[in-house]
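Thread title: Can someone regenerate the structure for this chain?

I was given the following input by a collaborator and told the matching structure tokens would be attached. They weren't. Posting the sequence so someone can regenerate them.
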Amino acid sequence: MFGRSAPGIENRPTVTIAAAEFSAGVGALTAFVKAGLVSSTGEARRQIKSGGLKVNDVTLSDERASLSQADLTETGAIKLSLGRKRHVLLRPE
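Best answer:
Regenerated them for you:
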């Protein structure tokens, strides 16, 4: 669904999520809140409308999007970004 390449992500802050929760599909808004990039789902919605949220370097445009196994990069993580400078890795545990 989202881009597969995410160079240089190994040294990013990492947040883990339970494998069971992840395999059921995690809402993108929830993922950004859990990662600490936004304080609420309302803030995440506003960021999406302004083009400020990215998943694996692809701008998120659908607030109903969910993250799944298919979005994992080769390193086994999903790169969540707010703007150009704030990045967090989301890893299933």
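Helices lie at 19-23, 28-34, 41-49.
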